[in-house]
Amino acid sequence: MSSVDSLEVVYLEASHYDEIVDLWRRAGLHIRPSGRDSREAFRHQLASGIQTPIGLRDGDRLVAVALATHDSRKGWINRLAVDPEYRRRGLGLRLIRLCEEHFRRQDIHIWTALIEGWNTPSLALFRKAGYVLHDDVVYASRRADEKV
Prior knowledge:
- This protein is 30% helix and 22% strand.
- It is an alpha+beta fold.
- Strands 1-2-3-4-5 form a 5-stranded mixed β-sheet, with helices on both faces.
- Strand 3 and strand 4 (75-82) form a beta hairpin.
- The longest helix has 15 residues, at 91-105.
């Protein structure tokens, strides 16, 4: 296993979809293969220019990934995942910093993440990275195909 500093930073493309989903599964992320995590949705988000998958490789193996997305005003760090064999070595924090650098280059200076309240490791990671955890924000969502 390589040291954190020797891991290669990679900017991933649609051709890396299967590799990214495999890492998400190894990391225990809930995958929506027929929805937002579908191959088609992934390609569409890449083509739109709002999503950049940033990864870390140990040789040929993708061991960490995050999706840096933006709404032109705020940068969003989404779907951050680290291979269980590589956890507790600073890869998550390194990915956060890589996403922040990416946003700076796009002149985006507000960086955010949505983290489910039960996900204490992610809450701790973002707190360690200097993010403020807000307990007064309510997340609301609606799907276009849901009837009202």
